[in-house]
Design a protein that fits this description.
The chain is an all-alpha fold and 237 residues long. It contains 8 helices and no strands.
Length: 237
């Protein structure tokens, strides 16, 4: 923003105030790039936030439904037969994977039953890792936005204020109607950085807590299910 732009810019404070859209259009190219980057980061963050909210809610419903069925007294074989015929996720996918390994070990006489417990535990561990990885996918982007967006916005602010001071020096005036548009243009970048970072940090912490609780729930089920199959191994030995 040069001195002529300051003295004649439509951004100058008027009775109607300062338009944010005009601020962006009249800003320096560096500030415009900062604002554009922060807007893209904010939109992408909200898309991830909405996706994770829906995913966690759906996963919780599926897990509750499966646990209710699992502990209802239905035989493991009948439950496996019903679930193996469709695509499963969450705890049901763990159950199907473990039961598949159990059936292979029981039906294959060449495999000793003594090692089935270890194999089933490995299958459960891999299933847990896969489910947790699915839940954590793209959360790192939220952490990155939360950590860097304020600094990116601050960079845009510093750059904008430097340009404003240079233009003010050229115009040789500190009249508020001349100074205000340039300062507002610069501070808008910081405000946008905070607007992108705050929800990213809040929801990153929330999702991390939800994923941790979900992983503990899967591990608890894995231990209980492994114990059930271990008793079956003892009966067949």
């Amino acid at each position: 923003m040069n001195s002529s732009e300051i003295t004649s810019s439509p951004l100058a404070a008027t009775e109607g105030g300062i338009s944010i859209f005009s601020l962006i259009l009249q800003a320096d190219i560096v500030v415009q790039l900062v604002v554009l980057g922060l807007l893209v980061a904010s939109v992408w963050s909200w898309s991830i936030i909405i996706e994770k909210i829906l995913l966690i809610a759906r996963t919780r419903r599926e897990t509750d439904r499966f646990e209710q069925t699992f502990w209802s007294g239905q035989s493991l074989q009948d439950l496996y037969t019903a679930l193996s015929q469709r695509r499963n996720a969450s705890m049901a996918a763990m159950f199907v994977a473990a039961m598949r390994e159990w059936k292979r070990s029981v039906e294959d006489a060449a495999k000793p039953l003594a090692g089935v417990q270890v194999r089933i535990e490995k299958v459960l561990d891999v299933s847990i890792a896969r489910e947790v990885d699915q839940m954590e996918r793209r959360l790192m982007f939220l952490a990155t936005v939360g950590a860097t967006a304020p600094f990116v916005g601050l960079f845009g602010t510093v750059w904008g204020i430097m340009n404003s001071f240079q233009a003010i020096a050229g115009a040789k005036t500190t009249n508020l109607t001349v100074v205000a548009p340039g300062i507002a243009e610069a501070l808008f970048a910081t405000a946008l950085g905070l607007l992108a970072a705050i929800p990213a940090v809040i929801f990153y912490n929330k999702f991390t807590h939800d994923v941790t609780r979900y992983a503990q729930r899967l591990e608890g089920f894995a231990d209980e299910f492994a114990s059930i199959l271990s008793r079956q191994v003892d009966v067949r030995s």
